[in-house]
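Title: Prediction job returns without error message
Component: structure pipeline
Severity: low
Priority: P3
Assignee: unassigned

Description:
Job completed but the reporter wants confirmation the result is attached to the right record. Sequence as submitted:
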Amino acid sequence: MIRTFDDVLATSLRTRKPQRLLLLFVKAAPSAPLAQYDLAGAQLEPVLALNKVVSGSLRFPDLVEEADRQRRDWDFVLIAAVSKRDGGLPSSQEAHQHLQERAEQALASGDFSRFLVFDRQEQPLWPAPERQLH
């Protein structure tokens, strides 16, 4: 079960292929307490996109700090993992393109099934905490 960012890392590290995490930091409008959001119906605006090579040294507070240095106006982070079919590590540019395509689709359709979503305090918001990363 994925309940924390460390669970995301552990799941990704168990794969045989090197992966990059795709991280899309979004803000929600209108402002409301996070617990009231239904992500499928929320208006989400991307504010920052990052990708990171999956490693055991990644920590959620470090990602929050890095994001905040660039933009502080985000509410959630959408997370997915990507690897190459040939077993190689995707370049940062390839990962960014993949994230852009996934994000556009999710934001347009309201279907976040290809992402895990955490708030700033690392609380899982989508999907249900028992969902596995794929």
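Comment from assignee: result matches the submitted record. Strands lie at 20-29, 43-53, 76-82, 116-119, 124-126.
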